[in-house]
Amino acid sequence: MSASATPTFPPHLLDFQDWSRPQIESLLETARMMQEVLARPVKKVPALTGFTVATVFFEPSTRTRISFELAARRMSADVVSFSGAMSSTTKGETYRDTLRTLEQLGIDAYIIRADAAGVCHQAYRWLGKPVLNAGDGWRAHPTQALLDAFTLLQSLGSLEGRKIAIVGDILHSRVARSNAELLPLLGAAVVACGPATLLPASLPGARLTTDLREALEDADAVMVLRLQKERMDKGLLPSLPEYIAAYQVTQARLGWAKPQAPLLHPGPMNRDVELEGILAEAPQSLVERQVANGQAVRMAVLYHLLVGRKRSEG
Ligand code: CP
Hints:
Layout: H1 21-38, E1 52-57, H2 63-74, E2 78-83, H3 95-103, E3 109-114, H4 119-127, E4 131-136, H5 142-156, E5 163-167, H6 174-185, E6 189-193, E7 206-209, H7 212-216, E8 221-224, H8 240-247, H9 251-254, E9 263-264, H10 287-313
Parallel strand pairs: 1-2, 1-3, 3-4, 5-6, 5-8, 6-7, 8-9
Helix pairs in contact: 1-10, 2-10, 3-4, 5-6, 5-10
Phosphoric acid mono(formamide)ester binds near residues 266 and 268.
């Protein structure tokens, strides 16, 4: 794998504040190479031999955690897996003491999911090792946005001038925040839509609207988000049936977007709440492709932060 034209990468992936378009494009190009690895009969390369990677999840996850762990193993890293619910944090140990404990065991990179914004930034300060944000509170979920961009690029070819509609609980969504940061870097215009109580006062990188028809009309792609009840105060919605009536993405409403506009959902889905259940299997649904692409994208992120970055530093 050649790194000759690789730009220098930040020593972490916390959000996209320190990332440029050439860095993102280079990373997505590496993800395309990783897809080729994953298409081989033996899906394994030695790139991370000798590295130990820890997945540290203080919140539940299915796809992010498994695809990160598989990504690291596909590149021959050793992987340790930490789950907050099964750990000594339940006995009162702090995030810092937990991470410092792992540090004594020779971890080279930390993949962290936490319920609070800023934990990944703090972890980088505490540890001084590569930290990959696997979702921190409401704030950021950068590898989800990268796999969304990768999937959109496969489908649309280019994001230049494309209108991407994001519909649902924008207020509590780290996926919406990361996509609003990333997609405009690649030339897209993001429109985020939900009821007024589920929209933030502002969302850098996106235009906000409460009008679903306006958001979907002429959209090149539609991304649907679930209601994050675990982060939601009571009283934000009059009732679930009223939310569904006004904001569910249905087959009929998807007709407002461009013909065959790709449909994305980061998962987990609540079928027949934020989207009409059968749409998940519709021809334009990329939901399963997003999951599959997550592995290649996370291989690329691990490669650049642990190996490619050192090579480009010389
Ligand atoms: N999209 C996403 O983060 O899913 P998980 O919570 O299953 O990791």
